[in-house]
Write a sequence for this structure.
């Protein structure tokens, strides 16, 4: 584990997570959540968990984002918080 | 005091895990929109996966794939110290799949709620429920 990269990616993970919860648009929240999942995937390949990393890249960053975007298009984009 | 500081700095992965978990818990409780609550639930799940994967990390170890495991000069003595512990990884592989399944069910329920009440905000749904 290379700790400077680890620390940088951890910071990006926290920023993407807070951003996904703070943004006032549900489509933006879905895309930021995809970025969060991809940062998590990078984190796991840094920590040597390559099997978890590629499962997260396909299932977490791929399928989850598609689910969120599909749900947002079937409902509404606006949100109060 | 310096012991405490060095312990806090050395375990920074765990502090970030606690931070992410509390962000997810806050979103699940305090956010008003149902999709935001589901995003918070997913952040909570990935925080727990981060904790388990952090347990398996070892200094100076490689990824858990057997070295010199085949070929003419293959030797079969495995030094467990040289490899990252793969047991938490396998457990968390299951957790990721379960997380996507719960995400699908939660979003399907949110779509049904939207079709019934024409809103995703929790307070508006509760107001409509009280009116009936």
């Amino acid at each position: 584990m290379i700790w400077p990269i680890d620390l940088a990616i951890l910071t990006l993970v926290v920023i993407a997570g807070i951003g996904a919860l703070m943004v006032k648009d549900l489509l933006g929240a879905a895309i930021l959540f995809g970025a969060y999942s991809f940062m998590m995937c990078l984190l796991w390949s840094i920590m040597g968990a390559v099997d978890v990393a590629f499962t997260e890249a396909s299932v977490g960053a791929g399928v989850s984002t598609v689910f969120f975007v599909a749900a947002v298009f079937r409902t509404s984009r606006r949100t109060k918080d | 005091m310096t012991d405490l500081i060095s312990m806090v700095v050395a375990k920074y992965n765990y502090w970030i895990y606690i931070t992410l978990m509390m962000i997810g818990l806050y979103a699940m409780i305090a956010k008003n929109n149902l999709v935001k609550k589901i995003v918070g639930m997913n952040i909570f799940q990935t925080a727990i996966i981060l904790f388990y994967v952090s347990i398996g990390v070892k200094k100076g170890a490689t990824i858990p794939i057997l070295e010199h495991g085949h070929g003419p000069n293959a030797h079969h003595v495995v030094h467990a110290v040289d490899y990252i512990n793969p047991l938490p990884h396998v457990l968390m592989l299951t957790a990721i799949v379960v997380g996507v399944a719960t995400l699908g069910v939660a979003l399907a329920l949110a779509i049904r709620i939207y079709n019934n009440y024409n809103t995703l905000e929790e307070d508006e749904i509760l107001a409509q429920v009280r009116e009936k």
In short: Chain B touches chain A through 48 residues (CB under 8 Å). The mean pLDDT of chain B is 89.
